[in-house]
């Protein structure tokens, strides 16, 4: 890798329209772009992910400030972060389309906290569109994860804001059984999210 001062000069020249410097930067950071594309290829394919990584890299060149961070670290953060965001939006769009079509035809702590935030108990002032987005994401994950009828029943009632004891009473089972359904459902949904390149923090 070149000295940071030389690299930062190349970024400035590329930003000013120097195609030679721009091409050199892309060649230098191609492993970064390929790595990001490979990580998120499962969502929409390698080529689509690579294009998003390239767009993120261009954005990194356009917005980098040498006094804030070294360019390699800044570029890596932007490429992985922006590519992940783009792939997440693409995945959600695909899942919502499939979910709508299907409707017409018919122990992780982060995840625990996420599920508890759903339903009517959300604090005042929270954007209702965010709540809808989160709810749809969970429903899409549940469908793709192929939850059992009992696990799906747990999720439906959990989203309705019912507590474990209330669920147990309604379904005629013990609270321990409800916790078992919940543990299995959360595990399946987490695995489905990770396989799509998502994480609890993305939701």
How many individual helices? 11
Query: Biggest sheet: strands, sense, closure?
Result: none
Which of globular, elongated, flat, extended, rod-shaped describes the shape?
elongated
Overall helicity: over 70%
Write down the overall mean pLDDT.
76
* β-sheet strand percentage: under 5%
Number of strands: 0
Q: Name the poorly predicted regions.
A: 99-108, 118-132
Structure characterization notes:
The structure is a single chain. With 203 residues, this protein is an all-alpha fold. It has helices spanning 4-15, 19-28, 30-39, 41-44, 46-63, 71-105, 109-116, 128-145, 149-159, 164-171, 175-195. The protein is elongated and about 70 Å long.
Produce a short descriptive summary.
The protein is an all-alpha fold and 203 residues long. It contains eleven helices and no strands.
SSE inventory with pairings:
Blueprint lengths: L3 H12 L3 H10 L1 H10 L1 H4 L1 H18 L7 H35 L3 H8 L11 H18 L3 H11 L4 H8 L3 H21 L8
Helix pairs in contact: 1-2, 3-5, 3-6, 5-6, 6-8, 8-11, 9-11, 10-11
Observed structural traits:
203 residues, mainly alpha, 76% helix
């Amino acid at each position: 890798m070149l000295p940071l001062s030389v690299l930062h000069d190349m970024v400035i020249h590329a930003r000013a329209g120097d195609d030679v410097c721009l091409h050199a930067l892309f060649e230098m950071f191609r492993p970064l772009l390929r790595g990001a594309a490979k990580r998120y290829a499962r969502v929409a394919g390698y080529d689509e992910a690579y294009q998003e990584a390239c767009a993120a890299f261009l954005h990194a060149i356009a917005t980098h400030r040498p006094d804030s961070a070294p360019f390699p670290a800044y570029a890596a953060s932007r490429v992985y972060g922006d590519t992940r965001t783009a792939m997440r939006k693409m995945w959600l769009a695909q899942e919502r389309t499939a979910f709508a079509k299907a409707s017409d035809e018919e122990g992780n702590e982060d995840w625990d906290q996420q599920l508890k935030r759903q339903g009517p108990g959300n604090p005042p002032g929270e954007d209702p569109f965010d709540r809808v987005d989160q709810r749809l994401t969970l429903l899409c994950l549940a469908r793709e994860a192929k939850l059992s009828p009992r696990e799906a029943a747990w999720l439906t009632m959990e989203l309705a804001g019912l507590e474990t004891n209330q669920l147990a009473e309604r379904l005629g089972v013990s609270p321990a059984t409800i916790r078992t359904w919940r543990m299995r459902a959360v595990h399946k949904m987490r695995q489905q999210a990770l396989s799509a390149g998502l994480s609890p923090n993305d939701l």
